Amino acid sequence: DTAVSQTPKYLVTQMGNDKSIKCEQNLGHDTMYWYKQDSKKFLKIMFSYNNKELIINETVPNRFSPKSPDKAHLNLHINSLELGDSAVYFCASSQDPDSTEAFFGQGTRLTVV
Amino acid sequence: KQEVTQIPAALSVPEGENLVLNCSFTDSAIYNLQWFRQDPGKGLTSLLLIQSSQREQTSGRLNASLDKSSGRSTLYIAASQPGDSATYLCAVLRRDDKLIFGTGTRLQVFP
Could you give the 3-state DSSP secondary structure of residue B97? Predict the structure, then answer.
């Protein structure tokens, strides 16, 4: 019973394609996040949703669009994939935006060829 | 702008040694600081969370301290084991609800 689960774990696709990464948490948390880990292992926040509402939107290309159908899900859609989008994407959740522990998914390794 | 730095970037030690990993951050206005472990090809595992009002947290062989005024945290690993080999990341939760990660310390414990 994984707390935060992402699918798929690996994704290899060609430039120009549109792809989605799904994330689900069964912790009853209000807040969910997407992070990108680049080749240097540096993790950067991309988006944060609290109760299905966007609260953090870092400077990412508008080809990236998060969608939260309910509190337990935060999916990431990426249009017109580029080589530079290759990275590991992590989903995470926390009880609320402040002062709580964050739980991470296992990551999705996206490779754009 | 909050910057989080971890030293050393890499560490290789024999089994049984006690270790100290360092994390420094530039802005002391944080809600909490968290230490994670990342294993190759796997996700992040939360190890310890220290609230801004706390000085330290302990879990098994791990002890994390927080000195907000100096912008530093240390993760102490007692009696290291080969299974401790991983990348260790610290992250601070800023007042604007953003979790800012350091670049990590890659630890290898050899038998």
Answer: coil
Q: Could you read off the pLDDT of B24-79 as tens digits, one per residue? A: 999 888 888 999 998 876 678 889 989 889 999 999 999 999 999 999 999 999 99
> pLDDT tens digit string along A51-110?
888 887 777 889 999 999 999 999 999 999 999 999 999 999 988 776 567 888 889 999
Q: Is A40 on the interface with B (CB under 8 A)?
A: yes
**A10 to chain B: closest CA residue:** B41
Contact between A76 and A89 under an 8 Å Cβ cutoff? The reply is yes
What is the spatial distance between Cα A90 and Cα A12, in angstroms, rounded to a whole number? 16
DSSP A84: G
**Minimal Cα–Cα distance from A99 to chain B, Å?**
5
Among the listed residues B22, B23, B14, B36, the one whose alpha carbon sits nearest the alpha carbon of residue B80: B14
Task: Tally C-beta pairs within 8 A across A and B.
Answer: 59
Cβ of residue A104 closer than 8 Å to a chain B Cβ: yes
Identity of the residue numbered A12: V
Task: Compare CB distances from A104 to B43, B97, B104 and report the shortest one's residue.
Answer: B43
Could you say which of A90, A99, A109 has the minimum Cβ distance to residue B32?
Answer: A99
For residue A28, which phi and psi values (nearest 5 degrees)? 75, 20
Q: How does DSSP classify residue B102?
A: -
Residue B44 to residue A45, Cβ atoms within 8 A? no
Spatial distance between the Cα atoms of B51 and B32, rounded to a whole number of angstroms: 4
Q: DSSP state, B84? A: G
